[in-house]
Amino acid sequence: MKATNTEIRDHYSTLGISSSVRGNLISAQDLKAAYHRALLRHHPDKSRHPRSSTTSPDNTIAAAISVHDVTSAYQTLSNPITRAEYDILLRLQLGKKLSKSGNGQVAETFRSGLEIVDLDDLEYDELSNVWYRSCRCGEQRGFVVTERDLEAEAKNGELTTGCRGCSLWLNVLFQASDEGQTSGG
Question: Residue 29 and residue 80: Cα distance in Å, rounded?
Fold first, then answer.
């Protein structure tokens, strides 16, 4: 899933799932039931609501939702990998909205589940030329850092990367040496 500058649609709202049961708390069976309810609610032949707008779970008027939107939401959320990636993007989007200051500048985004480590704490794979660390979600290489990632953040001496299997974050501290090599700091 690619991150874009445009706002992503809230798939949970599309399926009528309230914010209190989002994330890993909803079972596959409940997700499928929400999908079927949303299909009936938004199908042009079945819906009693006008196509111009619909009411979201928090009783606000949202943009029209098509059957294609409902199907896309279900496909994203029913796959654990795409769901984890989507949840990260959604949290980033929400964090950017919440961190806007009065002058339009985006403040530093708070990320829950953030752990701070040194580059030396990560394993190094010489064949792939990447540093990696397993995550508590079970993903063997949940956090992966490439040489390119390090070069891009060499001025700051730290980079933040998300787990590939869940919504946890890892802040990696390092120090770039004069020879262009990076080392833990």
Answer: 14
How many Cα neighbours within 13 Å face the side chain of 65? 27
Place of tokens 């040496």: 177
CA distance 130 to 123: 8
How much is the pTM?
0.47
Query: Can you tell me which residue has the tokens 């991150």?
Result: 3
Residue with tokens 């708390």: 25
pLDDT in tens, 89-130: 777 666 555 545 445 544 444 455 678 888 988 999 999 899
Task: Kindly state the tokens that stand for 130.
Answer: 């990447």
Cα–Cα distance for residue pair 153/160, rounded to 1 Å = 10
Query: Which CA distances in Å does 1 have to 37, 54, 61?
Result: 26, 27, 27
CA distance 28 to 71: 15
